[in-house]
């Protein structure tokens, strides 16, 4: 991560953190033992380079409700001006731990689908940041199909992970298509 001369808050380095993470996602994918030899995420850099990424920083949150309120507001206001909206806060397992984060994302994805919203939430949580990525489920599923054709998922996930991460999302997208 690039060093910053003066940092008042951990979120002050979020732009550098995201830039470095997206660069990391462009490196060859060593996780997959299949035919796919491309980047870990071949779409992240394009979104960044085309300024289609919005970063929302949650500086002060004292309960999980504060964080989820911002996530919910960003879902309500999601439009075509960005492909991905990232809501980030300093990680604090006393406020949101990984299990709570996962459950919250699953619950919101189900709710958004039942509401007929073309949105999907992904999470990233580490010792620095708690992050939700909001994007269109249709776009995410379309790119997932492209990656599957290239062997991206061949050995990436266990059967259970594949069912949840890819097939489960695809079922929600199909339900969304049935509603329109």
Short structural summary:
The protein is an alpha+beta fold and 180 residues long. It has helices at 14-25, 44-49, 64-77, 98-114, 137-149, 159-179, and strands at residues 53-58, 84-90, 120-125, 129-135.
Total helical segments: 6
Radius of gyration: 17 Å
How many beta-strand segments?
4
Percentage of β-strand residues: 5-15%
User: What's the structural domain tally?
Assistant: 1
Structural class: alpha+beta
Q: What series of H and E elements makes up the topology?
A: HHEHEHEEHH
- N-to-C span: 44 Å
Low-pLDDT parts are none
Helix content: 40-55%
The strand order across the widest sheet is 1-2-4-3
Form type: globular
Keywords:
46% helix, 6 helices, 4 strands, 180 residues, globular, 4-stranded mixed beta sheet, alpha+beta
Structural commentary:
- The protein has 180 residues and is an alpha+beta fold.
- It has one domain (10-179).
- The chain is 46% helix and 14% strand.
- The chain is built from 6 helices and 4 strands; from the N terminus they run ααβαβαββαα.
- A 4-stranded mixed beta sheet has the order 1-2-4-3.
- Helix 3 (64-77) links the parallel strand 1 (53-58) and strand 2.
- Helix 5 (137-149) packs across helix 6 (159-179).
How are the SSEs placed, and which strands pair?
Blueprint: H1 14-25, H2 44-49, E1 53-58, H3 64-77, E2 84-90, H4 98-114, E3 120-125, E4 129-135, H5 137-149, H6 159-179
Parallel strand pairs: 1-2
Antiparallel strand pairs: 2-4, 3-4
């Amino acid at each position: 991560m690039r060093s910053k001369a003066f940092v008042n808050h951990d979120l002050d380095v979020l732009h550098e953190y995201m830039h470095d993470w997206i660069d990391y996602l462009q490196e060859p994918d060593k996780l997959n033992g299949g035919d796919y030899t491309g980047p870990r995420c071949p779409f992240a850099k394009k979104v960044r380079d085309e300024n289609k990424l919005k970063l929302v920083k949650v500086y002060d949150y004292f309960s999980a409700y504060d964080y989820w309120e911002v996530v919910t507001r960003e879902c309500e206001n999601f439009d075509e001006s960005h492909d991905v909206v990232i809501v980030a806060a300093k990680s604090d397992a006393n406020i949101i731990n990984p299990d709570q984060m996962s459950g919250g994302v699953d619950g919101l994805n189900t709710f958004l689908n039942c509401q007929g919203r073309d949105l999907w939430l992904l999470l990233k949580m580490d010792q620095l940041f708690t992050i939700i990525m909001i994007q269109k489920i249709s776009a995410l599923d379309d790119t997932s199909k492209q990656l599957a054709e290239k062997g991206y998922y061949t050995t990436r996930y266990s059967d259970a992970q594949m069912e949840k991460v890819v097939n489960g999302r695809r079922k929600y997208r199909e339900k969304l298509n049935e509603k329109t």
